[in-house]
Design a protein that fits this description.
Layout (H helix, E strand, L loop, with lengths): L2 H10 L1 E4 L7 E4 L1 H4 L2 H12 L9 E5 L2 H13 L2 E7 L7 E8 L2 E8 L8 E9 L3 H13 L2 E10 L5 H5 L5 E6 L1
Parallel strand pairs: 3-4, 3-7, 7-8, 8-9
Antiparallel strand pairs: 1-2, 4-6, 5-6
Helix pairs in contact: 3-4
Bound molecules: 1-O-pyrophosphono-5-O-phosphono-alpha-D-ribofuranose and adenine (ADE).
Subunit structure: Homodimer.
Main location: cytoplasm
GO biological process, one term: AMP salvage
């Protein structure tokens, strides 16, 4: 991906101070999603790390991770698996509680969503403290699938989420702030 494309993506993300609570600088990705060329470049850039690898499933995290995860899955010729906030999935689930930059929550995955040894990529829009991704990675691990790596559109490096995920496999981020 060219430095010009990365800079265009970076400068299109909107900073919103004090959302959803005081002291948080929220990275608003909606202007990127609204621009077809930029959205395509974001997905292309996030997919590059897995080019040439056989990927069976991309796991995306509720809700912004669904957008990136589903588009990445399509680009890689893989299926898409949703990790959802508690109480939203209809079938039998396993769940994990976690903390994130601005609160606490629980995520769930269907017990039969992934088969043992399937090749899996985790995708989300943003890595902050790593609490959310760590919870999703625990669900992937419990399923017996093989994690190829995690990919994020944005990494907030000052929150050290990458360290939390380090033992799970390769961590890729298109833009670092
Ligand atoms: O690294 P962390 O500190 O865990 O933060 C990152 C998570 O926070 C946001 O999700 P949010 O729960 O706000 O969900 P949304 O996509 O529904 O807005 C973001 O989409 C990541 O999933
Ligand atoms: N600062 C932030 N901006 C957008 N999404 C986030 N998720 C966690 N921290 C965030």
């Amino acid at each position: 991906m060219s430095p010009e494309s990365l800079e265009r993506l970076r400068s299109t993300i909107r900073d919103v101070p004090d959302f959803p609570q005081p002291g948080i600088l929220f990275k608003d990705i909606t202007p990127v999603l609204a621009d077809p060329e930029l959205l395509n470049e974001a997905i292309e850039g996030m997919t590059e790390a897995f080019a040439g690898q056989k990927v069976d499933k991309v796991v995306g995290i509720d809700a912004r991770g669904f957008i990136f995860g589903a588009l990445i899955a399509q680009r890689l010729g893989a299926g898409f698996i949703p990790v959802r906030k508690k109480g939203k999935l209809p079938w039998q689930t396993r769940g994990v509680d976690y903390s994130l930059e601005y609160g606490k929550n629980s995520v769930e995955m269907h017990v039969d969503a992934l088969a043992p040894r399937e090749k899996v990529v985790l995708a989300d829009d943003l890595l902050a403290t790593g609490g959310t991704a760590g919870a999703a990675l625990q669900l992937i691990q419990e399923s017996g699938a093989d994690l190829l790596g995690s990919v994020f559109f944005i990494e907030l490096a000052f929150l050290n989420g990458r360290e939390k995920l380090a033992e799970t496999g390769p961590v890729h981020a298109l833009l670092t702030f």
